[in-house]
């Protein structure tokens, strides 16, 4: 096998985070957070952000950890943004002023937020919280911030340039004032979409309500599967998604103490991401084991199989390129 599969393994405890990944980095409530780029650069505004696996997959995967009452300010994306909660409780809120609605997500919950809406998130736990994020496309675009956040950030000494670079005015001069990204005007804000809490709940799958969503494939009492986004093929069966968003990738959860998938190949990108348990992945003639918070990118066209080898029930996310 020509590919060194260990180079495709992203162990969470070996990832290098950015401590000021965005223009809001000096603001209260956004200072004590870390941003990780696992697959692809994501939407970080930190030019020095470390990227663990740079190969294009058709999607990006990142992670965010934050201290209590810290998180991200209100922002919008042009491509899909899907959240996978690992630990802690996260409050998601939305609207240009953050008052249109909110949901609280906990470990194992998944939410797919629509594009063209402002959303923010905050750790409302007593301890540090962690979640992973899947973003659509090889180039997920740039973040659009609310006018208030950009103004507050500038007052704190942070400005965002039109090439998506950050300037800390405490450390360097602004090279060209005309190239600073300016806050959106009122007529521009009117083009963004609005949602009630009940409308957003349609895009949330809660882990503690798994009985509503889990289905079995042919391996009864072995595999349980939640298929969140796009179609998922397993053991000659096709599972339909619960969330109707077109993201450019599929997202599914495989659960079970003895959960496994027999050998198969894929031409497009596929990533295994572990919520918990211990998972052995055979890739052609090689094997690799991943645990909680680890991510493995499978080489395209390789013959692969998966099985849970831990002593308790495990949960593994499967992300596949569909664009």
What features would you describe in this structure?
The protein has 323 residues and is mainly β. It folds into two domains: 5-205, Jelly Rolls (Sandwich); 210-321, Jelly Rolls (Sandwich). The protein is built from three helices and 27 strands. The strands form six sheets. The protein has a seven-stranded antiparallel β-sheet with strand order 1-25-22-27-20-17-16, with no helix packed on it. It has a seven-stranded mixed β-sheet with strand order 3-2-4-11-6-9-15, with no helix packed on it. The longest helix has 10 residues, at 147-156. The chain is globular and about 60 Å long.
Topology:
Layout: E1 9-10, E2 33-39, E3 51-53, E4 59-66, E5 71-76, E6 81-87, E7 90-94, E8 101-105, E9 110-113, E10 119-123, E11 129-136, E12 144-145, H1 147-156, E13 158-160, E14 166-168, H2 186-189, H3 197-201, E15 204-205, E16 215-216, E17 224-229, E18 232-234, E19 237-239, E20 249-256, E21 260-264, E22 270-276, E23 279-283, E24 286-290, E25 295-298, E26 304-308, E27 314-321
Parallel strand pairs: 2-3
Antiparallel strand pairs: 1-25, 2-4, 4-11, 5-10, 5-12, 6-9, 6-11, 7-8, 7-10, 9-15, 13-14, 16-17, 17-20, 18-19, 20-27, 21-26, 22-25, 22-27, 23-24, 23-26
């Amino acid at each position: 096998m020509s590919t060194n599969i260990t180079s495709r393994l992203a162990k969470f405890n070996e990832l290098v985070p950015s401590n000021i990944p965005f223009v809001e980095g000096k603001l209260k409530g956004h200072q004590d957070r870390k941003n990780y780029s696992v697959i692809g650069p994501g939407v970080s505004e930190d030019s020095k952000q470390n990227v663990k696996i740079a190969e294009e997959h058709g999607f990006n995967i990142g992670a965010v950890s934050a201290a209590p009452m810290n998180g991200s300010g209100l922002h919008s994306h042009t491509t899909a943004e899907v959240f996978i909660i690992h630990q802690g409780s996260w409050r998601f809120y939305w609207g240009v002023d953050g008052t249109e609605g909110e949901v609280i997500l906990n470990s194992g919950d998944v939410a797919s937020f629509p594009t063209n809406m402002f959303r923010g998130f905050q750790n409302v736990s007593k301890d540090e919280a962690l979640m992973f994020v899947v973003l659509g496309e090889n180039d997920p675009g740039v973040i659009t911030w609310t006018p208030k956040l950009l103004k507050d950030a500038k007052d704190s000494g942070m400005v965002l340039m039109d090439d998506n670079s950050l300037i800390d005015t405490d450390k360097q001069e602004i090279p060209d004032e005309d190239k600073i990204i300016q806050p959106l005007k009122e007529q521009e804000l009117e083009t963004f979409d609005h949602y009630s809490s009940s409308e957003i709940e349609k895009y949330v799958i809660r882990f503690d309500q798994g009985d509503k969503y889990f289905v079995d494939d042919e391996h009864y009492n072995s595999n349980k599967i939640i298929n969140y986004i796009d179609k998922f093929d397993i053991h000659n069966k096709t599972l339909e998604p619960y969330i109707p968003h077109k993201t450019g990738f599929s997202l599914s959860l495989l659960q079970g103490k003895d959960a496994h998938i027999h050998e198969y190949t894929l031409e497009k990108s596929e990533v295994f991401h572990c919520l918990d348990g211990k998972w052995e992945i055979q890739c052609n003639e090689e094997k690799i084991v991943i645990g909680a918070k680890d991510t493995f990118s499978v080489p395209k066209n390789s013959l692969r199989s998966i099985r849970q080898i831990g002593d308790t029930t495990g949960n593994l996310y499967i992300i596949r390129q569909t664009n």
